[in-house]
Amino acid sequence: MMILKILKYQLRDAMRSKWIILHTLFFFLITDSLFRFTGEGDQVITSMMNVVLLVIPLFSIVLGVMYLYNSREYIELLLCQPVKRDHLFWGLYGGISIPMVLSFTLGVIIPFIMHNGLAWQPLQLAIMLIVTGVLLTVVFVAIACFLALTFEDKITGLGIALAICLFFTVIYDGLILLFIYGLADYPLQQPVIIISMLNPIDLGRIILLLNIDVSALMGFTGAVFQRFFGSALGQLTSISAMLMWVAIPCWLGRRAFLKKDF
Amino acid sequence: MIHIEKLTKCFGQMKALDCLDLSIKKGQVTAILGPNGAGKTTLIKSILGLVKPDQGIIKVKGEKVNGNCNYREDIGYMPQLVRYPENLSVNEILDMIKDLRGRPNDIDLELQEQFSLDKELKKPFRHLSGGNKQKMSAVLAFMFYPEIMFLDEPTAGLDPISSSILKDKIQKEKVRHTTTILTSHIMSEVQELADRIIYLIDGKIHFDSTVKSLMGETNEPTLERAIASLIKGIAA
User: Does position A125 have pLDDT exceeding 60, yes or no?
Assistant: First the structure.
């Protein structure tokens, strides 16, 4: 009950926030212009995939961290009311992730409907794109909560947030490549699958690629992924791994919030 | 009303509160004074549950403060710094707090009327001037007829008229037997409002006395002088 009350006002605040409006506009313009330039649902989805994988983690973590650091006095005010810290944590987490999820979803869906993209496009792909975007948003907002509540200093928190983003989007893939290259003589299928699960962005990419059926382009590991993740068990595993990526930072963030001094 | 035993809180190496004992009776106005960084705000925030103490016991109305939140129903708090969600209007923020307290009707709007905040109610919070933000914070603190009131430098940033309205309100609350705890650097204000003075230095109580006896002992014309001579006396 209390969580819903907090959420209600959080959402009202967020809906008028210029950042959330920009976030919606960004996805709207990108999707719309991709439709205008390529004209086909297939290609739009493939290009959107890269946008989602690169931009959503960055936006979610930066906006989440900034919001929490800027809301410190507001959180204090709420904590002086008869509100449990636990409830306030979930209210804040929901209050950041729900507007981000809605704004992303709207920004992608509206151009799709406008350009009649649903008519020639297998619907499943579009849905998977949105599901992946939503999952990545909640994962990175959760990481943002953990960082902003653990590190007292705004600059430190923001710096670590950017570093984590960079690590998962760029550095991690390089490390995997190095690993595969260096140990090319050994059977690597299983280790590579496990390593990919440790990166939420890789997980998102896998979920998407398997649905687009271009995993052949991923070469050797692609085939491994296809074999493993293509199965129902594989899909289930990758989605659960993604949910673990929501649960663990949330748990850590909540623990930090319950102990924190304001 | 409030009972504190051996309260200790460290921030890193610095001891903000050092084994502090304190009891505050119902209906008293207590001023917590001391130099910057003496631990005044930390003390208030510990009682409110915003800061989690390292050691010690805090009891409010006989009940231990330990992660529970219901005791805050009877508490009003006016913080030093005010910043609420930027995009909500003043009205929406008031509604939100009423909603969270679950008491939409039984409220005290006297301050809101006296401050004539009506024009400001529809504005987004970010467009309010510093003084008006402060006034709104005062309205929120007094709104629910609190039994215990914390005021952290309440008149800093207020114009003289608003400042006297607020002081009158604090006096009026005393008739209702509200326990008030305030911090301030303006000694004339403390002299006017407080019954009891607690002087903190480095997280310890340096002296604890009533305004009357303090003035009597030191024979100084104002509270400011009295405290200054007392501090000098102790130091020498």
Answer: yes
